[in-house]
Automatic annotation (TrEMBL):
InterPro entries: Brnchd-chn_aa_trnsp_permease. The keyword Transmembrane applies. It is a multi-pass membrane protein. This is AzlC family ABC transporter permease. Belongs to the AzlC family. GO terms for biological process: L-valine transmembrane transport. The chain crosses the membrane at residues 20-40, 46-65, 135-160, 166-185, 192-225. It is found in: Cell membrane. One of its GO terms (cellular component) is plasma membrane. The lineage of its organism: Bacteria, Pseudomonadati, Pseudomonadota, Alphaproteobacteria, Rhodobacterales. It comes from Ponticoccus litoralis.
Length: 239
C-alpha cells in the first residue's frame, strides 16, 4: 500500500509537471541559441544549464558575459536573481526536511520555480501525504521539467551554431525577460516592485558592469516589501 501511494504520487507529479514543458522547452531552446551567439560551445551551453538550472539567472549571467563583465559581477548578479530560492527552501523544508541527505540534495538541486509552486500547492491540498509520497510527487514534477531543460538547451545550441556570427539576436534577451516577468506580476506589491525596479534600472543605466540592475533589483524588493507591509497593517486594522 505504501509503495502504491509513492508510485501514484510520483505519476501525479509527472502529470502536474507536464504543462510546464510548454514554457520550459521554448526558453531552453532560446537560451541555447543565445548562448552560442555569446560565444559558448554546445557543450558549454549544456554545462551551463546543468550547473545553474535556473532560467532567469542563466539569462542574466549570459547578458553580463556578453558585455564582458567581470566574473565576480556575473556570479553576484546570478545569485541575486536566485535569492528567491532561499525562501522556497525555507518554505518546503517542513515537508521534505526529514529525508536522507542524498534525497535532500536532489530536492535542493531540482528546486526551481515550477517544482516549488506545484509541490507547495499539493502539500497544502493533501496534508495526509507521507514524507516519501511528498518526495515522490516532487521528483515527479521535476521529471518533465528539468531533464527536458537540458535537452532543449542542446537543441537550441545546435540551432544557434547554424546562425552566422554577429547575427544580432541581442533584442531577443529582453523579450525573454519580459515573457518570464509578466505572469509573475500577480499582486499590487509585485507590480510596484517591478515598476520601481524598472525606473531605477533606467535611471542607473550608466553604472558600469550593469551594477545599476543590482541596485534597481534591491530597490524594487524594498518597495514591494513596503507595499506588502502596509497591506498587512491595513488588513490587521480592519480585523
Amino acid at each position: 500500500m505504501a509503495n502504491g501511494g509513492v508510485k501514484s504520487s510520483y505519476w501525479r507529479g509527472v502529470r502536474d509537471g507536464l504543462p510546464f514543458l510548454m514554457v520550459v522547452g521554448p526558453f531552453a531552446v532560446l537560451f541555447g541559441v543565445l548562448a552560442t551567439e555569446a560565444g559558448l560551445t554546445v557543450l558549454e551551453s549544456l554545462g551551463f544549464s546543468i550547473v545553474v538550472i535556473a532560467g532567469a539567472a542563466q539569462f542574466t549571467a549570459l547578458q553580463l558575459m556578453s558585455e564582458q563583465a567581470p566574473t565576480l559581477i556575473v556570479i553576484a548578479s546570478a545569485l541575486a536573481v536566485n535569492l528567491r530560492m532561499a525562501m522556497y527552501s525555507a518554505s518546503i523544508t517542513p515537508y521534505l526536511g526529514g529525508l536522507s541527505l542524498k534525497k535532500r540534495i536532489l530536492a535542493a538541486y531540482f528546486l526551481v520555480d515550477q517544482t516549488y509552486a506545484a509541490a507547495a500547492i499539493e502539500y497544502e491540498k493533501r496534508p495526509e501525504m507521507t514524507r516519501a509520497e511528498r518526495y515522490a510527487y516532487f521528483m515527479g514534477v521535476a521529471t518533465p521539467i528539468c531533464p527536458p531543460w537540458y535537452a532543449f538547451t542542446v537543441i537550441g545550441a545546435l540551432v544557434g551554431e547554424t546562425f552566422p556570427p554577429g547575427l544580432g539576436l541581442d533584442f531577443v534577451l529582453p523579450l525573454a525577460f519580459l515573457a518570464m516577468l509578466g505572469p509573475a506580476l500577480r499582486t499590487g506589491a509585485h507590480r510596484v516592485a517591478a515598476l520601481v525596479a524598472a525606473l531605477a534600472a533606467l535611471a542607473l543605466a550608466g553604472l558600469p558592469y550593469n551594477l545599476g540592475l543590482m541596485v534597481a533589483a534591491a530597490l524594487g524588493m524594498l518597495a514591494g516589501a513596503e507595499v506588502e507591509r502596509r497591506v498587512e497593517m491595513r488588513e490587521a486594522a480592519r480585523g
